[in-house]
Amino acid sequence: MRYTISGKQIDVGEALSTHVETELGETLGKYSQRPTDATVTFSKDAYEYLCDAVVHLSTGLTVQARAHANEIYAAFDGCKEKMDKQLRRYKRRLKDHQKDRSEPVEFGAAGMYVLTADEDDWETHDDGIQPIIIAEMESRVPTLSVGDAVMQMELAGTPLLVFRNEKHGGVNVVHRRDDGNVGWIDPRGTGNVQ
Length: 194
Prior knowledge:
It comes from Paracoccus amoyensis. The chain is α+β, with helices and mostly antiparallel strands. The chain has helices spanning 14-31, 72-89, 91-100, 146-156, and strands at residues 2-7, 35-45, 48-57, 62-69, 107-115, 123-125, 128-130, 133-144, 160-165, 171-176, 182-185.
């Protein structure tokens, strides 16, 4: 497995890098036999250290965790514990996912845009008021089952996931609702709602 361990405006020493590789390797070894690479980034926010970890599995799934603490090792340990909890929750499904899928998850390319939030900055056109695009990026849209999409959303720690439904090829969304449940949007064949 490839490790990328870095710090934003802080020096990550050899001891911390070795600690991260050993501990993260142990945690991932319990749940997933085939991680491909891990990126761990440390930063400092006022008096706290932040640790962000992203691990890509060979199946195409991604596991993400973030933690903060007063000490850098404690921040990493908190991040590792979150990742451990996520992987433990999905251990059986991750192993089943690897057996059922003969090839890694397919990804399609999609444009992703960041729009200005301030309505005063929006442009006026003949067809109406349009927000200004302040960033354009490339995004990847995975082809997954609904169950795998929910698992990926929770492993990544994101509030929503856009994916292509592997049953019918349509674009779907799963999202975390305010009531704690997961919502699933499947626009295929919805017809007119009155």
